[in-house]
Amino acid sequence: MKGVIHLRPLASRQTRLPFVLVNMAISADGKIATANRAVASFGSPRDLAHLYTLRATADAVMCGAGTVRDGAVTLDTGGARYRQLRLTRGLAPHHLRVIVSGSGHLDPELPIFGALSADRAGKAGVNPRTPSASRIREPVRSAQSARSAPGLPALSEFWPPGTCKTRRPPPESPPVPFSPAPLLILTTERAGASQCARLAAVADAVVVCGVREVNWPGALAHLRARWGVKRLVCEGGGELNDALFRAGLVHELHLTICPLLIGGRQAPTLADGVGFTRLIDAARFRLLRRRRVGDELFCVYTRRDPRG
Ligand SMILES: NC(=O)c1ccc[n+]([C@@H]2O[C@H](COP(=O)([O-])OP(=O)(O)OC[C@H]3O[C@@H](n4cnc5c(N)ncnc54)[C@H](OP(=O)(O)O)[C@@H]3O)[C@@H](O)[C@H]2O)c1
Description:
Layout: E1 4-6, E2 19-27, H1 45-55, E3 60-64, H2 65-70, H3 80-88, E4 96-100, H4 114-120, H5 155-158, E5 183-187, H6 193-200, E6 205-208, H7 216-227, E7 231-234, H8 238-246, E8 252-258, E9 285-293, E10 296-303
The structure holds NADP nicotinamide-adenine-dinucleotide phosphate.
């Protein structure tokens, strides 16, 4: 079927996988949204700028179906400023966007599919069914535009020199036209053939990888080999984060700890899903950097070597 790729299990454990980092804004009690999922935007404009800046270091940005269903998330670059930042770092002007949905139940009318649908229809710009690209921001992190943040952070504020490597010499600042980033859906055999075909009509590729849950080593190996993804940012939600933590595939954790308490037993947290039942198995990290900006704390944790 056109646009649908069925992956075989990985033949070798030696296959190179992307560097994976999880980036989330959490309340002081570890929540990522309210219990009714109505509010997930509580970071400052500064935090939103941080999210876009981090995306501008990555080849791909990924989130779970729950996040796409709950909000007007588009996983975009954040605008010309951030695309320029990508170019100066030797990256493509747009990152690959990845949605994870084991069931494949995603409404093609969701905003994330909008720009691509319009592009396929041969129109410049956006799908008339959805808000304009400039209005689709990332409400999951902040209702305010990152552009209104007082003094956008330089990359070096969060990553000291040398932590982000430029892969090739910066090109001479060409104008960057609007063209939507490619969109890939990672799914499983739970999504039937007709579901996959429906998704293939609104995405660049549908990758079937796993029976009930995504087979992460296989999926990440595919992202690296087929799409050139060396650095992947995962932006939640809690269920997807948990799957990656349990698979032991998260190298870095970027947390913005916001000065509020959300509470609520049903409110999603940084890592939900199945979790670890034994402390010895818990995903462990070391605090690498932290920076206070106003009342928010920007923290970077790095994975502890499981043998260490
Ligand atoms: N504060 C923040 O920074 C932040 C960031 C992101 C999200 N959020 C909020 O978090 C909430 C969503 O979190 P969530 O935990 O409910 O949902 P989620 O992690 O975004 O998505 C869960 C869904 O993703 C798919 N999925 C995840 N792991 C999978 C795996 N290993 N294999 C196959 N499919 C997998 C499944 O889709 P199917 O159901 O299709 O099988 C699952 O139901 C939203 O309210 C969102 O606004 C907040």
